[in-house]
Amino acid sequence: MIYVVGIGPGGYDGLTGEALEALKTCEVISGYKRYVELVKDFFPEKFFMSYPMRSEVARCEEALKVAEMGYSVALISSGDAGVYGMAGIMLEVAKGLADIKIIPGVTAANSAAAVLGAPLMNDYVTISLSDLMTDWEIIEKRLRTACNGDFVICLYNPASHHRPDSFKRACDIMLRYKPPETVCGYVRNINRPGQESKLMTLDEIRDCEEIDMLTTVIIGNSQTYALDGKMITRRGYEKAVRSEEVGGRNEEL
Q1: Which residue did the predictor score with more confidence, 82 or 240?
Q2: Domains, the chain, ranges and CATH?
Q3: Distances, alpha carbon 84 to alpha carbons 4, 114, 122, 165, 234, in Å
Q4: 103: exposed, middle or buried (C-beta count within 10 Å: 0-12, 13-18, 19+)?
Q5: What's the pTM value of the predicted model, to 2 decimals?
Q6: Residues 197, 6, 15, CA angle at the centre, nearest 5°?
Q7: How far apart are alpha carbons 166 and 131 in whole angstroms?
Q8: Could you give the CA distance from residue 128 to residue 154 in angstroms, rounded to a whole number?
C-alpha cells in the first residue's frame, strides 16, 4: 500500500484525521527533506526516506520498490498532495502496479485564507509562479485570464533565489487589469514557527521583500476589502437577503 498524504501546513494540528491515521499506519514515510523534517518528531518509530528538491520521480520509484517488498509507505506532500503535489506523478509512475490511496490535506490557499480573514468567499483560482514545469508564457496567460474574470488569485511559489523577479513580473501583469489599491495579503511560514502575515495593496505588495517560496499570496478582486485588519471578499449574501425580502412581500401581496 502507498498512501500519498497531504500533511497540510506541517504542524501536528494541521493534519487531517485521515492523514494522521495513514501516517500512524504506514511503516515508511518518504518525501522532500523539508517536509520529512516537519513530521519526523511526531513519528520517531518510522523509517524515513528523505530526498532533495527536483527528485519527484525518484521518490515515486523508490516508494514503489519499497511497497513491492511488502511495506506500507506514506509519500508526503505539504498542503494537499493533489495540488502541486505528489499524487499525480505517483499514479503515473505506479501504472496500476500498487494499491495507492490519495489522502487529502489542507492546501496553502485555505490555510493562508484563514490567517488573513475570508478572502476566498467567492470564485478564486490558484496559480503557481514556478516556471520549472510550466513555461512563463503560459503563467502570464493564466494571470491575464484570471484578472479578466475578476477572480481572487492565490499565488503559490511566488519567488525563489533562482526566480527573484517572478513575483514582481506577475504583479506588473495584474496591475494592468486591477487597481493599484486592490486589497492583497501574504502569509509566510503558515502555521509554523515564525509565521508572519500582512495586508497590503497590490501596488505595495509588488515590492515586498518578504515574498519567497515559503509565502502564499492572495490577490483580491473587485469585491475584496479590508475590515478590522482582515481581508474579506463579498459573497453576495446581502443581495440574496434583499431579494428574499422583496420576494416575500410580493407573495404576501
Answers
A1: 82
A2: 2-106 (3.40.1010.10), 109-233 (3.30.950.10)
A3: 13, 20, 22, 21, 28
A4: buried
A5: 0.91
A6: 70
A7: 9
A8: 8
